[in-house]
Amino acid sequence: MKVKGIPTRTIWPLRADGAVGIIDQTRLPHRYETVELRTLEDAARAIADMLVRGAPLIGATAAYGMALAIRDDASKARLSEAYKVLHATRPTAINLRWALDEMMGVLKPLPEGDREDAAWARAAAICDEDVEICRMIGVHGMDLIREIAERKDGPVNVLTHCNAGWLATVDWGTATSPVYHAHDEGLDVHVWVDETRPRSQGAALTSWELLNHGVPHHLVTDNSGGLLMMRGMVDLVIVGTDRTTASGDVCNKIGTYLKALAAKDNDVPFYVALPSPTIDFRLDDGIDIPIEERSPDEVRWVPGLTRDGDISEVLICPEGTPAANHAFDVTPARLVTGLITEKGVVEADKSAIARLFPERVAAE
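== Methylthioribose-1-phosphate isomerase ==
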């Protein structure tokens, strides 16, 4: 995608400088700033503190984190240490473990002297693969938008939740990729953007993306979706996911389950866009997915731009009020119309998913 007309990815190698570049997403939408990661600790901190976020981008950052970790010590002990440090950063997104397993599978069999070059090469390949996967998600998802456009007057209204855009991946995004493809093809498409409390990824990130790309959209409060669906103002819902089970249960940003319930009650198609590495073939039941609990201060304090142009935080509750901050929820497969993958749209069903990805099933 483009930032100020310049083709841009969310992460890029700066190997000549011994670093990896990223967009600091905690500064968006008010500041566009980049950061250089130079150490294992830098990569781990970028993931944990959400300078990078979104399951595919977390995985890509972890892959480069492995490359940074072994610049001066490529021993098996160092590989194991790096794996442990990076894996502990965020428990829910399965792409993190997938990327680390990919790196270990490539690096462990090699002589120590060959590991650094191989690590940079595999991390770069993981990023390139993610771009192509997300592009194909857009191609398949665009067909759903086109089908609706052919039978109605006016724009196709898509509701999304959180940020499953190109900022959550290396490029294109998952849930937004069909929207970008449809828009670029000249289809009349409009997006309802959930603000997505408490970190406001919809307001801060998805809105920023769509505005930069020229896609018509409106920011709405998280509780607006039911009303919009009831009034016939939503044609389909497309969300992303941080982990999807082998049976099609979907773990995504907190609040997704409520959107799925509202969609079911109003006969609105509810789709989940995901790259195949986000499918956890070791799990059948979404209840077993670990749900990350983040700092209560993310609920109690809200960042924003002041009228003076400063980025600041304000307390929105009584100072002594405690808060709970569950970052994700699980939507049962029965509420999911279909999964939009790089291989096509598939029913959220164990047998259907296994038929589409037999190689993944065999690998597990």
